[in-house]
Specification:
This protein is mostly helical. About 50% of the residues lie in helices and about 0% in strands. It is built from 2 helices and no strands.
Protein backbone atom coordinates (compact mmCIF):
# COMPACT_ATOMS: atom_id res chain seq x y z
CA UNK A 1 0.00 0.00 0.00
CA UNK A 2 1.43 3.37 -1.02
CA UNK A 3 1.10 6.31 1.28
CA UNK A 4 0.08 9.74 -0.08
CA UNK A 5 3.55 11.25 -0.48
CA UNK A 6 4.76 8.13 -2.30
CA UNK A 7 1.79 8.46 -4.66
CA UNK A 8 2.67 12.11 -5.18
CA UNK A 9 6.28 11.27 -5.99
CA UNK A 10 5.14 8.59 -8.47
CA UNK A 11 2.67 11.03 -10.05
CA UNK A 12 5.56 13.23 -11.15
CA UNK A 13 6.22 10.65 -13.90
CA UNK A 14 3.18 12.08 -15.69
CA UNK A 15 4.33 15.71 -15.53
CA UNK A 16 6.63 17.43 -18.03
CA UNK A 17 9.60 18.94 -16.18
CA UNK A 18 9.89 22.73 -16.53
CA UNK A 19 12.38 23.66 -13.80
CA UNK A 20 15.92 22.71 -12.85
CA UNK A 21 18.16 20.43 -14.86
CA UNK A 22 15.28 18.21 -15.93
CA UNK A 23 13.58 21.26 -17.47
CA UNK A 24 16.12 21.23 -20.29
CA UNK A 25 14.79 17.91 -21.61
CA UNK A 26 11.12 18.96 -21.65
CA UNK A 27 8.83 16.24 -23.06
CA UNK A 28 11.54 13.61 -22.72
CA UNK A 29 11.16 13.85 -18.94
CA UNK A 30 7.80 12.06 -19.16
CA UNK A 31 7.94 8.60 -17.62
CA UNK A 32 10.66 9.49 -15.12
CA UNK A 33 9.84 10.43 -11.54
CA UNK A 34 11.21 13.70 -10.17
CA UNK A 35 14.28 12.90 -8.07
CA UNK A 36 13.52 15.69 -5.62
CA UNK A 37 10.02 14.37 -4.98
CA UNK A 38 11.41 10.90 -4.33
CA UNK A 39 14.06 12.23 -1.97
CA UNK A 40 11.46 14.28 -0.11
CA UNK A 41 9.21 11.21 0.26
CA UNK A 42 12.14 9.27 1.75
CA UNK A 43 12.85 12.14 4.13
CA UNK A 44 9.25 12.08 5.35
CA UNK A 45 9.38 8.30 5.82
CA UNK A 46 12.62 8.45 7.83
CA UNK A 47 11.33 11.35 9.92
CA UNK A 48 8.20 9.36 10.79
CA UNK A 49 10.27 6.28 11.68
CA UNK A 50 12.60 8.34 13.88
CA UNK A 51 9.61 9.93 15.59
CA UNK A 52 8.04 6.56 16.33
CA UNK A 53 11.26 5.30 17.96
CA UNK A 54 11.25 8.04 20.62
Amino acid sequence: MKIPFEKGAEYTKEIVARMGRAGTVGERSLGYPDAGAGAHALGVIFTEIAGSLK
